[in-house]
Design goal:
single chain; alpha/beta; Rossmann fold; 2 domains; seven-stranded parallel sheet; 12 strands; 16% strand; elongated
């Protein structure tokens, strides 16, 4: 249930809200009922706004936050990841940060599954070759997902949603997540596993953790040596979790049968050797790019932002 649409009389009607990365009309409508809303591509004049709404493109640094104080009170991320916002700086100067963590769960889980199927059945390669006039039926032999082991690193909302879909296809799901109690894994349909054990047992490995100093490069040279030969790696979470130079080496050596990335350390990555590798399936950070996810994100962040400005209880405060 959403919050009441009619503005309580105690709420201010003079708030100014800046949106820099665009927002679906559902969210704009909610915000415009109670505030003066401006849309632009940069942060010029941010010091004259009470709130800021961003997605993944705009970087909200310590300098940005400091220059916008004392008027700026809230930053809203229309999506899940907040690694483009300096949370420590926000907390230090009293700026609230909220996000919309539920909006993209289904879309990202479905996109991850689509990438797994693309790897398993070599769909992008088949498509490209047929468009070139080739008929490579005998060469394009794939594998079934049924009966394979899926290792999920990070068994939160998206990891759990992926597990439910993978189990429906007959996969065995194991997971590593230091924040979950052992019994919680099985409630989410995943057998608990140690990190090294997961790498060695999984036919497919999918990452669903935030980018933090602890997770930066968590799949690097050492981890690729531990991964089961012939496995396939998928990352739809955040660029920087996978060491891309090591991933390229693992693909070139044949240790990995394939990999799929929706996210990159630097976006857009350009025509790199990794992006061009025939055993990589690459998409341009579109995991949450569905009509449904964008509508939910806009609606949720608009309500949460107004609640923060109005001093109401918050559902998704991250700083």
């Amino acid at each position: 249930m959403g919050r009441p649409s009619g503005p309580p009389t105690r709420w201010a009607l003079s708030w100014r809200i800046l949106i820099t990365d665009g927002l679906e009309e559902d969210g704009l409508t909610i915000l415009r009922r109670r505030a003066d809303v401006a849309e632009q591509d940069d942060l010029t004049g941010l010091e004259h706004f009470d709130a800021l709404v961003v997605r993944g493109r705009t970087r909200v640094t310590s300098g940005v936050l400091s220059s916008a104080a004392p008027r700026l009170k809230v930053v809203g991320r229309a999506g899940v990841g907040v690694d483009n916002i300096d949370l420590e700086a926000a907390g230090r100067i009293g700026v609230i940060v909220v996000n919309a963590p539920l909006a993209s769960t289904t879309s990202v889980a479905e996109h991850t599954l689509a990438l797994m199927l693309s790897l398993a059945r070599r769909i992008p390669d088949a498509d490209r070759s047929l468009r070139r006039g080739e008929w490579r039926k005998a060469e394009l032999e794939g594998v079934e997902l049924s009966g394979r082991t899926l290792g999920i690193i990070g068994v939160g909302r998206i990891g759990s949603a992926l597990a439910a879909r993978a189990r429906a296809l007959g996969m065995h799901c194991i997971g590593f997540d230091p924040h979950l109690a052992p019994g919680e894994f099985r409630r989410r349909g995943v057998d608990p596993s140690g990190f090294a054990e997961l790498l060695g047992l999984s036919d497919f490995i999918s990452l669903h953790v935030p980018l933090t100093p602890e997770t930066q490069g968590m799949i690097g040279p050492r981890e690729f040596e531990m991964i089961r030969p012939g496995a396939r790696l998928i990352c739809t979470a955040r660029g920087g979790l996978v060491d891309e130079a090591s991933l390229l080496s693992a693909l070139e050596s044949g240790r990995l049968a394939g990999a799929a990335l929706d996210v990159f350390a630097h976006e857009p990555p350009g025509p790199t050797s990794l992006v061009s590798h025939p055993n990589l399936v690459a998409t341009p950070h579109i995991g949450a790019q569905t009509i449904e996810a964008q509508r939910r994100a806009a609606h949720d962040i608009a309500e949460e932002l107004l609640a923060a400005l109005g001093g109401q209880p918050l559902r998704w405060r991250v700083a």
